[in-house]
Amino acid sequence: MAQKYKKITIPITKPYLDGKEEKLVARVLRSGWLTQGPKVIEFEKKVNEYTRTKYAVAVTSCTTALFLALKASEIKEGDDVIVPSFSFIATANSVAHTGATPVFADIDRRTYNISPLSIQEVIKSGYKFDNTKKALVNNTTNNRLRAIMPVHQVGLPADMAAIAVIARKYKLLVVEDAACAIGSEYKGKRVGAHSPLVCFSFHPRKIITTAEGGVITTDSKEYAEKITALRQHYMTVSDLARHKTGSIIFESYPEIGYNFRMSDVQAAIGIAQMDKLDMVLMKRAAIANAYNKAFVGHPYLDVPYVPAGYKHNYQSYLLKVKNESPVRREEIMTRLAGAGIATRRGIMAIHQEPAYASAKTIINLSVTEECALSTMTIPLYPQMNKAEVNSVISEIKKCFNRKKHSDG
Ligand SMILES: *Cc1c(COP(=O)(O)O)cnc(C)c1O
């Protein structure tokens, strides 16, 4: 039977926009230049400066960013890429689109990020070194292991130092799924500056938005040029360059590329959003701190764990309902919905989705499976006021009080 819910008054998230985005978008609309042009270049420069990287290439989404990062590294059918199963499905999809196979690793119970120990376990149980191919080759499929794709889940950086050690040892590439992680820091450096290929999302569900969009950051000129070509049909001259020269130039197409262009309309939103990034991060941290204070030490809830030397941007606030809790996650979510407060299940386990039902998982993914059942995200957005934050806190706490009374 359909249950009646109160209208949702506190949503899970809201993009933070004001007149600045509207003004910049209106200017683009009036300029007559709508697609990838000067605003995309300006937006890319802002992302570069912020992440302290040499190059940034804007594309249509983080999914296409990850796909192009893998393509630029010539990852293809017959290759394996290690990804965490505990992630949004786009992580694995970006690998599958190249023809390569995503191979699932488990996560660390406290950080929810890919566990370096689990990566080692995947390699030890599934691969052996092939002397002729000079690569780790899968015992059953004969695929070559080529890369690791760590995810900075809900904005907490993965253990990049430990992952780098494994990558060096086995000559694997690291492509970071930093969809949620703009503004996060790891060992004193912002995410973006730790690997040759880092991909960000600007979907409205993330920290800042371009409506839809993604960016690849890199310090490698070669990667930047290759990805820039791939995003626009491998065309040797950009539309803008053709437009700017007074003379006639003919472009050529040395390889098959794609159309993954970001438009100047989207980039204009992104420019205004980049200017708000630090303020948005501060507001998010304040709300996350209020949640931490309210729930730390709770007998049945775990608050997000942030190791020393890491900066979390709290793209989402994950609460874990402990196994011994008398109230199940679904019950809390239902009661909050009844109070007009939106929640979402935490993160999915990709290997349990029908789309990946035939994917071979080499190792047991028990932590992923446990966390997929017991985590949930609660509302967090910069515009949330104190009363709304307090209402979320008290409604969650109430779930446990009521239980005590009805049991006692
Ligand atoms: C949102 C998200 C993506 C996909 O980003 P899009 O820009 O929507 O393609 C990929 N990976 C993770 C971990 C995400 O959270």
Architecture overview:
The protein has 408 residues and is α/β, with parallel strands linked by helices. It is 39% helix and 15% strand. It is built from 12 helices and 16 strands. The protein has helices at residues 19-31, 38-51, 62-72, 90-97, 116-126, 160-170, 221-231, 239-244, 264-295, 329-338, 366-374, 386-407; strands spanning 55-59, 79-84, 101-105, 127-130, 135-138, 144-148, 173-177, 185-186, 189-190, 197-201, 214-218, 301-302, 310-311, 317-321, 344-345, 375-378. The strands form 4 sheets. A 7-stranded mixed β-sheet has the order 1-11-10-7-6-2-3, sandwiched between helices. α3 (62-72) packs parallel to α4 (90-97) and α10 (329-338) crosses α12 (386-407). The chain is globular, with a radius of gyration of 22 Å. The protein starts with 18 loop residues before the first helix and ends with a helix. Pyridoxal-5'-phosphate binds at residues 61-63, 87-88, 90-91, 151, 177, 179-180, 201, 203, 214.
Topology record:
Layout: H1 19-31, H2 38-51, E1 55-59, H3 62-72, E2 79-84, H4 90-97, E3 101-105, H5 116-126, E4 127-130, E5 135-138, E6 144-148, H6 160-170, E7 173-177, E8 185-186, E9 189-190, E10 197-201, E11 214-218, H7 221-231, H8 239-244, H9 264-295, E12 301-302, E13 310-311, E14 317-321, H10 329-338, E15 344-345, H11 366-374, E16 375-378, H12 386-407
Parallel strand pairs: 2-3, 2-6, 6-7, 7-10
Antiparallel strand pairs: 1-11, 4-5, 8-9, 8-13, 10-11, 12-14, 14-16, 15-16
